[in-house]
Amino acid sequence: MAATSHAPIKSRDGVSRLAGRWPLLGQRRPLVIYLCAIVAIDLCVIALLTASADVRWPDLVTFGALMACGAVCIEASRRLGMPAGVSRDLLSAWWLPVALLLPPVYALFSPIVLHLLLQVRVRATVLYRRVFSAAAIGLAGCAASFAFHWLVPDPGRLSRGWPVAIVCAVVAAVLFALVNIALIAVAAHTADPESSWRENVWNKESVLLDVVELCLGVTVSICCGLNLALLLFTLPPVVLLQRSLLHAQLQAAARTDPKTGLLNAAAWQREADTEIVRARRSGETLALLIIDIDHFKRVNDAHGHLVGDQVLAAVAAMLRAQLRDYDVVGRFGGEEFVVLLPAADHREARQIAERLRVRIGHMAIPADDALIQVTISVGVALMSVHGDDLIDLLTAADLALYRAKELGRDRVCMPVVPPPAAPPEARPSASAPPHLSQTDPQTPTMPMPMQPVDPGHPNHPQP
């Protein structure tokens, strides 16, 4: 993947081997510091509040009942299945009542209990992510709990339907969501400084799900405050909503490549077939790109597969950032990506392919103590020019990609269709086959690169 312009790749040292066993050590240093700081703050607050807590049996019983409801939801998730990439589980419906009805120290312990169950019963994920998530939710719940108890000294007023208590509960729930989102957004931006804050904070679907979770949390709090037995009536609707949400996420996960978040090969093929049928009916143009990361094996061999996965994710993020919303982009397997460009003509396809090549060539991906730069080779094919169906377009683009690799990588190539028949005196000689493109009348070639080959050339385009 790392091509002629990448930073020197060093052999794996002791730190790299440790990163294989402890993935946190393979992350950016600012991210490691931030995650450790949040977890340390959470532990300090737990120790401080536990030392001064006034433990009462009614509080312990309420806490146990809410955690038991959360455990039932987790068991339902396990039975339905929760693969990587499925992240929304409606557990805030149980964390929030703990924050509103009980002293703040319980809000710190509730995510620890449920995340431990998730790790053991549902899916064992990277440990530092699980620990950080529990710490972030715990601090958010603690902040919400302090705010609510400061505004409403008697939590029983919430279950009695006191309007001010309900408004304060909503305010505390919003505070819970904002603090949790902020802590996670800082982590995401620290992990990828080139990502925009809006991308990390704002997502319409995620915000709607947050609103649903907060409404559920406030409703469960009111019911739980009235009588713990009412949890038996609130639990089935929450489980049903959770199963519906997980089912939708599972359908999305089945279409998505877990390492890059792009469409997987099967889902991309279905989307591409649909676009090709639409283009035939409307008579519009359409282009297909096959993108391959140059010398990807060198990165895996030198830095390990975890770093290789980071490079794949970084390239995928750049593709999403540079392409239009309606372009169909997916991972075809290994280090190969495919892009379908609806309504793109010959010139636009060349410009997009070249822009992707230049942008990705100027990325710097952190790995251990080095910054890896990678290059890509791109094969381009046009509908009605190089083929009329997906198989023909993929074949033409793959041949162009092979030619780009043959010519030295880090370039864009496109097959050229034979020109219309010319008079005998104007036809090229036998040494220049008509199916080869030629940008210089004296130099026939197969697919010609569209920009200078050598990345170190002074005319190499800059982003």
Characterize this entry briefly.
The chain has helices at residues 14-21, 29-52, 57-80, 92-101, 104-122, 127-151, 156-159, 163-191, 197-201, 204-226, 231-255, 265-282, 296-303, 305-322, 346-361, 390-406; strands at residues 286-293, 328-333, 336-342, 365-367, 370-372, 376-382, 412-413.
CATH hierarchy class name of the largest domain: Mainly Alpha
Sum up the overall morphology in one term.
Answer: elongated
What's the helix count?
Answer: 16
Strand content: 5-15%
pLDDT average, as an integer?
Answer: 80
* Annotation, overall tally of beta strands: 7
Question: Which structural class do the helices and strands define?
Answer: alpha+beta
Explain what this protein looks like in three dimensions.
- The protein has 463 residues and is of the alpha+beta class.
- It folds into two domains: 23-255, Arp2/3 complex 21 kDa subunit ARPC3 (Orthogonal Bundle); 265-417, Alpha-Beta Plaits (2-Layer Sandwich).
- It contains 16 helices and seven strands.
- It has helices at 14-21, 29-52, 57-80, 92-101, 104-122, 127-151, 156-159, 163-191, 197-201, 204-226, 231-255, 265-282, 296-303, 305-322, 346-361, 390-406; strands at residues 286-293, 328-333, 336-342, 365-367, 370-372, 376-382, 412-413.
- A five-stranded mixed beta sheet has the order 2-3-1-6-7, with helices on both faces. Strands 4-5 form a two-stranded antiparallel sheet.
- α3 runs antiparallel to α4, α4 (92-101) packs antiparallel against α5 (104-122) and α4 crosses α10.
- It is elongated and about 80 Å long.
- Residues 1-20 and 419-463 have low confidence and may be disordered.
- Residues 415-463 are annotated as: Disordered.
- Residues 416-426 have a biased composition (Pro residues).
- One of its GO terms (molecular function) is diguanylate cyclase activity.
